[in-house]
Amino acid sequence: MNAALDDLLNDQEPSASAIDAFIASQSFPLVDDNKITFVYRGTADQLLLRCWISGLNTAQPFERIESTDLWAVTIELPAGSRIEYKFERIANGQQELITDPLNPVLARDPFGANSVCQGSGYLSPDWSEPDNDAPTGRFESAQVNSTAFGGTRDIQIYLPARYRSQRRYPLLIVHDGFDYLQFAALGTVLDNLIHRLEIPQLIVACTQSPDRLREYAGDNRHAAFIREDLLEFMRREYPVIEESSATAIMGASFGGVAALHAAWRYPDVFGSLLLQSGSFAFTDLGHHKRGPVFDPVVAFMNEFRKNPGKPADKIYMCCGIYESLIYENRSLVPLLQRQKIDLLFEEARDAHNWENWRDRLRTGLSWLFPGPVWMVYE
To answer: How confident is residue 11, by pLDDT bands cut at 50, 70 and 90?
Structure first.
């Protein structure tokens, strides 16, 4: 257990004021190298630590410290790790998931908020925070007519701060782009990396599917929407460079599957791919165990692994080592390298979440679109 907590407990029955002073003097959870101690103060019949990471028991029971209303549990976590968690509190027959009341650090996603444990040595990247010196790009809303799906689709277009309609710019298409903007600080990251000359000025088209688990799962209609509808709209309405070397597509989770599938269906169109924690489920024997929503993904990935072709010239991939998908992502690396694709693969001590993907954006974007700084110093 943590040394500061041990000191408090040296008194057989610490007073309420001593506990108050202890809590006021500490940051939670308590981090001692690779040991993390989570603390809760309050009443409960049972308390569990819920961490959504592969490789660790999903539910870690707290122990109540005798003669106090403090609860504690200690886990091991390698240096540099970042994980998200909640407490499961059971009292009077009622069960609830709550964020850590003693930890103000939260991460948000489409389902709400989680508490964040920042392991020893982890630092939230400064380039993901607003920089007053970085000029701010602007966003335009548009609707794209979709022959593939019928009707229209809403998109958000990022234009760099020094945008000029007389210039031509590289184009990046982002699956789940609205979520990247809200939960992974994509707009801020673009402003900062452009300001720091780590990536060039570029135009970014953010798209969002109303039925992503179906449309992103190797759906030919979606690939046609990206290529025939969205890409042609961007080329018609904005001054983007049309060469494949200046055209990239990206996505995370099922969005990574959609990006790979679109590039595979339309080779020589997208020169670069940025794939984050792709849900690249496949089978070598028997049936997968990920549920029916993955059936079309597995069908596509099995076909892709047999006939990968060359979906792009350059690919950046990343995955958290605390994800169940790490095996599938690692398995793709030698396959893609055999296709003579220029590939960079990065693993992180994190899980399947938006801030993991945020933290990898600098490496991914600057590797696919190196700015003047990298051109000079790399």
So the answer is: low
Transcribe 12-59 into DSSP letters: SS--HHHHHHHHHH--SSEEETTEEEEEEES--SEEEEEE--TTS-SE
Distance of alpha carbon 83 from alpha carbon 58, whole angstroms:
12
Buried b (16+ CB within 10 A) or exposed e, 75-108: bebeeebbbbbbbbbeeeeeeeeebbebbebebe
Question: Dihedral angle at the C-alpha atoms of 326, 276, 180, 198, nearest 10 degrees?
Answer: 130
User: pLDDT tens across 102-132, in order?
Assistant: 999 999 999 999 999 999 999 999 999 999 9
Tokens of 298: 């597995």
For 174-190, letters b (16+ CB in 10 Å) and e give bbbbbbbbebbbbbbbb
Any idea what the Cα angle at residue 136 is, between residues 135 and 138, rounded to 5°? 140
What are the structure tokens assigned to 287, written together? 């049936």
Contact of 70 with 60, CB cutoff 8 Å? no
State the maximum Cα–Cα separation within the chain, in Å, rounded to a whole number: 75
Contact between residue 273 and residue 311 where contact means Cβ atoms under 8 Å apart: yes
